[in-house]
Design goal:
Radius of gyration: 50 Å
Oligomer: single chain
Number of helices: 5
Length: 869
């Protein structure tokens, strides 16, 4: 029993050697099918798609070719596009809608396949009265009918699947068309890819051996003169006169009346049709020269798409594609090499202003389905015949129906002309309105505290603040001054900025100096200072306190606020002179679910942990905010904008003056990694290298450690995987860390590349100045390049983990540090006049090759100009 694959998708099926004789492949997708040595006798291939199929061993009958040509995508296949004629029986099988009565005088059928060899969509016709012209064409594809003998254009037509349309007249329905002297009736047949031109024989019906065609071929519409009518009858004889002498012959009588006119002769035949006027000149067409056949591949990688294929870097959303990868050889049977065309595209237009060309990708089977792009770049990947090109594209018109894999497409280019010369500069427009005043730091609260709120645990001293907090964009600074007139003993001065007394949400560490005697401690309370029995050495108790707190939110946290506290105080004797001084440096942390924005508090309050104890009898408070450190904002005020004066004449541009050190407010480098990857070291290349010969730089490095590396290293143009002891690098650190209730001081000095002892995982931050430095250890050695290096001086802060609502930080450290590095790779010590190399990267690494650095941010900016400062 014959196989039946009708209306099925059998893509890439292997039918090699299979007997499919008499089989039904109607409307089948046979893309890529292997038909090698298959028996296809009497098989029906009506409207079958065989693009990419292996058919080199097959021989199709004319009827099978006609059925396959109903699918426009098959027109480029050499095994079937060589069809030139059909028998009437074969034509009737392909187009059963054409009735026998309409083709009784037809003797043959000639076949036209426009653009099958990339010759353009032309159909040359030799008008013959007994020959049908069968044009295979896609729906809505414009076909230009020409006179074969002269090449003159007759009419541009197309089929919409139901009727034939006159493209030259707004796609009006066209039923008849005259080519030369032969009139044709036009029909879309079955509406499946054929336009039939059926000649009309106007002499089929004749009278006295003459037909309509003969009559229309005469030269005039006026008939010949009819025959002369018969002579009329003789008139009656006159009366006989009396007999007289023979008289001379009398005059001849009057002629009788003219007889009745004869009947009119038959009308002569119609004169011949006037000759057709000369054909107008053809318009310019670029379809043949700039249009190429290719097959779309669903692969999206940037690589050679293969002979006759092209790819988009976004197949799923074709209109969103930004790159097209196309073979140097087109998809026709000849596989023409058109690389020379691609290589010239960049000579047209301008990539930044409209692109080099307009690219249209059209469905071969449906000319109304297409996408349009601008070509903004052309890259040759391989200029050989088997090579490929990348086109950078920007979508202009979205495709209606996405094109499928291995689908035949027409790729057309409309080249963009070069940009004209720049026009003259227009006149200067009017001065615009004054812009808004830039946002600087501002004071939120400023004033004396009410004396009624300075005493006692329950009646706190506070600064009212009703504004919304915004830690995404601002840091906050609080100044508080008060006068202590009684000795409270060893008590704490507390604060409650967030109206939250939950002690495990706070962590406080301080280092205190009282007349040269130092102490450190840490606690989980909302503290500012530990008074530690502050009193006057002589005279009455009178101590002035100055407290400054800077609050900020760390870059990689949304639920933690950190505070840096500076406290100074001095006791006054009876004469009003200072007789005792105190200094405290401290840090504090607070955590809540989210402290990014919102009204976190309505006041900043201070109190002691002794109920009803007198805090002070005078107080002053101020709250300010400034843009976050990365914005470079500083506290400043701006006066009101004055009226705009009349514009003066523009003077000549003066020479560039020196740059003020205070102008270095923008970060030149801002390198960020937040992908949560964990590495042993980081050494990202700086966007702008550091010119340490001429400038001092401010550097901020923030990072997170997932484990304790014991030591952390800092380097410039070098990176290690462990502690390395070298004479050209010396570092010094001093500070203390708190570890689960235990306070430990740290001091380190050595010839090594490492800096700090890190007790565990947590948030880390460097802030330091980086400057060139030359040692003057011995006389005469100051100019030696061996003594020229860089010096980093600053602070390092470490906190083991971000605190949350139910637990507190377990470790916190603060260090002061200095690191001096010289020699290679910072300078070529073999050259007596060498200068420091620019620093291209700043590195951090963990000792013992520990993998612990997770996320980081590195920022640098110029701090001072050495040649001036």
């Amino acid at each position: 029993m014959p196989v039946d694959y009708s209306n099925q998708d059998i893509t890439n099926t292997d039918l090699s050697g299979v007997d499919v004789s008499g089989g039904n492949f109607t409307n089948t997708n046979a893309t890529g099918v292997n038909f090698t040595n298959a028996n296809i006798t009497n098989a029906v291939f009506k409207n079958t798609l065989i693009v990419g199929a292996t058919i080199n061993t097959l021989t199709f009958s004319d009827l099978q070719k006609g059925h396959l040509l109903l699918r426009a995508a098959n027109h480029g296949i050499a095994a079937i596009n060589n069809l030139t004629s059909l028998t009437l029986a074969e034509f009737r099988v392909i187009q059963p809608a054409i009735t026998l009565d309409s083709i009784t005088t037809i003797q043959s059928v000639t076949v036209k396949i426009p653009n099958s060899q990339s010759e353009g969509y032309l159909a040359p016709v030799s008008p013959l009265l007994h020959q049908i012209v069968c044009i295979f064409a896609a729906t809505n594809q414009n076909i230009t009918v020409t006179l074969a003998s002269t090449g003159a254009t007759v009419r541009t037509i197309r089929s919409n699947g139901t009727i034939v349309q006159d493209v030259d007249n707004g796609n009006a329905t066209i039923t008849y068309l005259k080519v030369g002297t032969v009139p044709y009736r036009l029909t879309a047949g079955n509406g499946d890819g054929v336009i039939a031109m059926i000649p009309l024989d106007l002499n089929v019906y004749q009278v006295n051996e003459s037909g309509i065609g003969d009559i229309l071929s005469l030269n005039t519409f006026v008939g010949a003169t009819g025959a002369q009518g018969n002579t009329g009858p003789q008139g009656a004889a006159g009366n006989t006169g009396p007999t007289g002498p023979i008289a001379p012959t009398g005059p001849q009588g009057e002629p009788g009346p003219t007889g009745t006119a004869g009947a009119a002769g038959n009308t002569g035949p119609t004169g011949p049709i006037a000759p057709t006027g000369p054909t107008g000149a053809s318009g310019t067409s670029t379809s043949a020269a700039n249009t190429f056949t290719y097959y779309l591949s669903s692969t999206t990688t940037s690589s050679n798409p293969g002979q006759g294929n092209f790819r988009l870097n976004n197949f799923a959303s074709q209109s969103a594609a930004t790159e097209l990868y196309i073979s140097n050889q087109d998809g026709t049977t000849a596989h023409n090499n058109i690389y020379a065309y691609f290589s010239q595209l960049s000579l047209y237009g301008n990539a930044a202003n409209g692109g080099h060309a307009i690219l249209k990708i059209q469905d071969v089977e449906d000319s109304s389905n297409y996408a349009i792009y601008r070509v903004t770049g052309v890259t040759t990947n391989d200029a050989s015949a088997n090579g490929w090109v990348t086109l950078t594209i920007v979508n202009v018109v979205t495709v209606i129906t996405p094109l499928s894999n291995a689908h035949a497409c027409l790729i057309s280019f409309s080249l963009i002309g070069p940009i004209g010369s720049t026009g003259p500069i227009g006149s200067t427009g009017p001065i615009g309105a004054t812009g808004a005043t830039p946002t600087f730091s501002s004071t939120l609260q400023d004033g004396l505290l009410s004396t009624t709120n300075l005493n006692g645990y329950t009646a706190n001293a506070y600064v009212t603040n009703t504004q919304t907090w915004d830690f995404d964009n601002y840091d906050y600074v609080v100044l508080f001054e008060y006068r202590q007139t009684s000795n409270l003993g060893n008590v704490h001065l507390r604060y409650s900025w967030f109206d939250d007394f939950t002690t495990n949400k706070y962590c406080y560490w301080w280092m205190e100096q009282i007349e040269g005697v130092g102490s450190t401690s840490e606690d989980n309370q909302p503290l500012i200072i530990f008074l530690n029995g502050i009193s006057s050495a002589t005279g009455t108790m009178d101590v002035n306190h100055y407290i400054k707190i800077t609050f900020t939110r760390p870059k990689f946290s949304t639920n933690t606020i950190l505070g840096h506290i500076e406290h100074s105080s001095n006791a006054i004797d009876n004469s009003g002179n200072p007789n005792r001084t105190y200094k405290t440096m401290a840090s504090t942390a607070y955590s809540s679910t989210n402290v990014t924005t919102g009204s976190l508090s309505t006041r900043l309050s201070f109190y002691v942990n002794v109920d009803n104890a007198a805090v002070a009898n005078q107080g002053y408070g101020k709250i300010m905010r400034k843009p976050r450190a990365e914005s470079g904002g500083e506290f400043q005020t701006t006066g009101a904008t004055g009226p705009t004066g009349t514009a003066g004449v523009t003077g000549p541009i003066g020479a560039t003056g020196p740059t003020s050190g205070s102008s270095y407010i923008n970060w030149e480098n801002d390198l960020l990694r937040t992908d949560n990857s964990v590495t042993n070291s980081i050494s990202p290349t700086l966007t702008t290298s550091l010119d340490v010969n001429n400038f001092v730089y401010e550097v901020i490095i923030e990072f997170y450690l997932t484990a304790s590396p014991a030591y952390i290293g800092l380097g410039f143009n070098e990176v290690y995987s462990d502690v390395v002891y070298v004479e050209r690098s010396i570092s010094h650190t001093y500070g203390a860390y708190y570890d689960n209730g235990s306070n430990t001081s740290q001091l380190g000095l050595g010839f090594n590349t490492a800096l700090f002892f890190i007790p565990g995982s947590g948030e880390c931050k460097f802030i330091f100045l980086l400057s060139p430095h030359r040692t003057f250890r011995n006389a005469g050695q100051g100019s030696s390049v061996q003594n020229l290096g860089v010096l980093a001086q600053g602070e390092f802060t470490y906190m083991e983990r971000v605190i949350d609502n139910t637990s507190s930080p377990t470790k916190m450290s603060t260090y002061s540090f200095a690191k001096y590095a010289l020699g290679t790779p910072l300078i070529d010590v073999t050259q007596s006049t060498a200068a420091l190399s620019n620093i291209n990267y700043i590195s951090l690494w963990c000792s013992s090759n520990i993998t612990a650095i997770k996320n980081y941010r590195i920022r640098t900016r110029k701090y001072a100009n050495i040649s001036r400062d």
